[in-house]
Design a protein that fits this description.
With 359 residues, the protein is mainly α. The protein has helices at 8-17, 20-37, 43-56, 62-72, 80-87, 92-101, 107-116, 119-126, 133-142, 145-153, 161-171, 175-182, 189-198, 201-210, 213-234, 240-251, 257-265, 269-280, 284-292, 297-305, 310-317, 331-340, 343-358.
């Protein structure tokens, strides 16, 4: 089939000397001509349209480019160069339809846009029906929580091992994301185990409620293994000797913050736990459980209730249940939280824990 362009002779004149209105009118006529016969055009015909569109869209207003984007996005053989130009547009009204729908837009272009453009562009890309690993790697790395959730929800999106690793880390602070990632059938077993290890009890419950019988059994198996491994790694602590030491100091009137700081400085975990329990007036098993946990906020509450100075609190944070010294990352945030926490609030929380334990 041949294609004739009655507009071609006047196109160069329109581009160089025509008004903006004339350019828009010409673009609309060319768009209609292309859409009317797109299904019958050969590659050379589409290439010709590509060159024409490229000339016309350089200086037209956003509204006209956005309309062109809407028209071309779903067309299977839409001109590739104009698709790329529209996809890279800074205005999401122009780029959005192409990024969401255009089947001819190359994966390399999606990756480039995802690396350099706005979150709105990433939102549009994440809404595509199918996504490759190279694209999802960038989306879960740069995208906000909406983008991450969309990628995880999209069963047609392929996610690399690195992408799953990033999603699992982000899911630690996002229960919705954790649930969505955990229910993906393609999540690698090590990542699934890490997800369950990081997830809260609420997420565990939601995963179990939504899982198939086979997946439910797997979740329960992983949780049981994690619990056993944590118990074996930390091990039960025998506090009887430490209690005798702390009791002796208490009788001598020397069980104070300085004694606790000395225990911490010497890496004496059991003595530190018993001393903190005595100063905060909290049962030893409660302090043991909170010290072995991943969250620092409960330990901050214990320390504030005991009236400890920050250097002592810091020495408690770097203790580890196995007697080694733990990394001190995030201490600046902990210090800020500790300074804002009032002693009255800490004691109120302690009383709540005690009442809950008694009931």
């Amino acid at each position: 089939m041949s294609v004739t362009f009655p507009l071609i002779p006047e196109l160069e004149q329109i581009v160089q000397r025509g008004s903006r209105e004339k350019r828009v009118e010409t673009l609309q006529r060319i768009t209609s001509l292309f859409l009317d016969g797109a299904s019958t055009y050969k590659d050379e015909h589409v290439d010709l349209f590509d060159r024409v569109f490229g000339l016309l869209i350089e200086e037209i207003e956003t509204k006209a480019r956005a309309e062109l984007s809407i028209h071309l996005a779903p067309v299977p053989n839409a001109p590739v160069k104009v698709l790329r130009a529209l996809a890279y547009d800074d205005d999401i009204a122009v780029a959005g339809p192409i990024l969401k729908l255009a089947p001819r837009l190359a994966e390399a272009d999606l990756v480039e846009v995802a690396k350099n453009q706005s979150q709105a562009h990433l939102h549009a890309i994440s809404a595509r029906r199918a996504l490759g690993e190279a694209v999802t790697d960038v989306l879960v790395g740069r995208g906000d929580h909406v983008v991450a959730r969309r990628v995880a929800e999209n069963r047609h999106a392929r996610i690399s091992a690195a992408g799953f690793s990033r999603l699992v880390k982000r899911a630690a602070d996002d229960g919705v994301l954790a649930e969505t990632v955990g229910l993906r059938p393609d999540i690698p077993a090590p990542m699934f185990r890490e997800l369950l290890t990081r997830a809260t009890a609420v997420v565990h419950g939601r995963l179990l409620a939504a899982a198939t019988p086979v997946l439910k059994a797997e979740i329960e198996n992983v949780l049981n293994k994690v619990a056993k491994e944590v118990g074996a790694r930390v091990g039960p602590h025998d506090y009887r000797a430490a209690q005798r030491v702390v009791l002796g100091l208490n009788r001598a009137g020397r069980m104070d913050e300085a004694a606790l700081a000395t225990f911490c400085g010497d890496g004496k975990y059991e003595e530190s736990v018993v001393a903190l329990a005595a100063l905060a007036k909290v049962p030893i098993n409660v302090v043991d459980r909170l010290m072995a946990g991943d969250r620092r906020d409960p330990v901050l509450i214990l320390c504030k209730a005991a009236g400890l100075a920050w250097p002592t609190v810091q020495s408690i944070f770097v203790l580890h249940p196995d007697g080694k010294t733990a990394p001190g990352q995030g201490l600046e945030v902990a210090l800020s939280n500790y300074a804002r926490l009032s002693s009255a609030t800490a004691r109120r929380v302690i009383r709540f824990w005690q009442l809950k334990r008694a009931s």
